[in-house]
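Please check our next protein.
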Amino acid sequence: MGGGSDRSITAIGVNGGWFVTTGGAPARSGGGFVRFDAANGGSGGGAPRDVAAARGEGARVLTDSAANASTISPAGAYYPGVVRSASAIAGSLLAMLLASCSKKAPPPAPKPEASASIDPVEAYERTLPTEAGSEAFEKAFHLHDQACTGGDLASCVDLGTDYEQGRGVGKDPARAATLYRQGCDRGIAAGCSNLGQLTDRGEGVAKDPAAAARLYGRGCDAGSPLGCDNLGLDYKDGVGVPPDDARAAALFAQACELGNADACTNLGFMRSTGRGVPKDGALAVQLYRQGCDAGSGQGCHNLAFRYEHGDGVDRSDRLALPLYDRACTLGVAGACDNMGGLYERSAEIPHDMPAAVRLFGQSCAMGDAMGCNNVGHMYELGRGVPQDDAKAASYYRRACDAGVALGCSNLGLLQKAGRGT
């Protein structure tokens, strides 16, 4: 299952950030993430990339809010409409190889707490693996190549994924497109869906939204959950096809029934907003839970957000916290940020400022500019880290440069007070 260009939107990562305003009141905002499909039964997650004002690419996930502009108020929220990331991952064979290699690898480093000597973003980046799974990917590539040469078309599609993602071989989107087309033309549904994603982005082939939608349709008709989900997003946004919310909702439902966790989340969004289907907050909650349980990080995030704000469920930070934690683990940068916010100021959860700093830093490192703003906020106030105006200004500037107006405002207030210069 399934983050630019002029049509790229990815984890905008302004999800639940607290910041300093002239009146001292906190405000919040929001973001998202996505996942993708496979030819041989596997699934994987994509990493967020950059921020854009339009829609995204690849497999996409809808975030839960009717708002589409940032709001500066204690209860304000900003969510982008759609988030996508690119491509497919090799299936069960690769999963087995990764599992076998993991037995030889040392355990992951523990999450460090922020300290005077370690910057929180640097601390998180130090925990990231550098060559994790490289041996397994190389083995998988050679096995996919051998099987494809022997006529296994599903392996040809997985070989295309290897070339697209640079797993065990140098990246070559044109070669990936050829392999995806080969599989698609011979009835491999994932080949059509994956080729659609390359066509959506214009990687290895000419960019053509209408052709991408047709490929998603071929994949969907052949049983690809990703194809149905992506075609649903095309109908929702009117990209490559005429806009049709009812058709989009039906495709999300079809993909959800086929096992695409993010499609369940997307259908939950349609139920939450009443687009294409009757508005039903209770059913939206059920769909977010279904998506979360099946591995949709954004589904976990949307459900957590509802618990945090008492939207359709009883308000509970204690129930929101583990859901944000799971979404953060699944790669939703904004969920890491929201989780940090709970540790900073929740009335139900014991405050833990070092944990809040660590999570804000993780969110920032994952591309969430609001997380960078919040690291600056913690440095400015000396919460969980030694007070440091220079570092506060640096993180506010980083957020500002990434397009977060709150970062620009906080930087201006700091400099106006003659600090951080």
